[in-house]
């Protein structure tokens, strides 16, 4: 009886071995599935990381491209502003030169007008006389006693202050004869520059 209890039938042993083999097989399959799942997850994770990296890379490239474009636009804008400023300076310089030229012309015209005005102040006859006088000086006239023979002495009317011309004979009629002669002799000597005393 005891021997029967301790010994197992062959069928039971086979069944247990089969169950153990099936269990091992299930465990292997489960392990394999888990490994495959792990690999799939890792692959998925890697794919996602790569996609994320690609997105980041693309975004960086877009940022760099936008920055580059912005820089080019800024440089272009600066060049346009510089060109505009240069043109404005050239235009301003031209305007200043034109204004300066006009002012110089106006000043020149004003001076010419003043010069013409000064020339018009003098009569033409006077200007001709002045010009002739500068070209040729008049020779001083030398008066002799004969010139004073018919000289009219200048008298002034006290009430009207008008000059009265009288002949030399009339002017000396009031004097004695000897004094008349002396007067004529004195006048003649004064004219020719000879002093009677000398």
Question: How would you characterize this protein structure?
Answer:
By secondary structure, the chain is mainly alpha-helical. Among the domains are: 57-127; 146-198, no CATH class. It contains five helices and two strands. The chain has helices at 2-6, 10-121, 124-135, 168-172, 177-192, and strands at residues 153-156, 163-166. Strands 1-2 form a two-stranded antiparallel ribbon. Strand 1 (153-156) and strand 2 (163-166) form a beta hairpin. It is rod-shaped. The termini are far apart. Residues 1-6, 170-182 and 194-198 have low confidence and may be disordered. Residues 1-123 are annotated as: Disordered. Residues 8-24, 33-49, 60-115 have a biased composition (Basic and acidic residues).
Mean pLDDT score: 74
> N- to C-terminal separation?
212 Å
The residue fraction in helices comes out at over 70%
Taking pLDDT < 50 over at least 5 consecutive residues as the criterion, the unreliable ranges are: 1-6, 170-182, 194-198
Strand content: under 5%
Largest beta sheet: strand ordering: 1-2
Specify the number of helices. 5
**Structural class, judged by helices and strands?**
mainly alpha
Q: Spell out the helices and strands N to C.
A: HHHEEHH
Strand count, sense and closure of the main sheet? Answer: 2 strands, antiparallel
Number of strand elements: 2
From the spread of the alpha carbons, the general shape counts as rod-shaped
Question: Over all CA atoms, what is the radius of gyration?
Answer: 71 Å
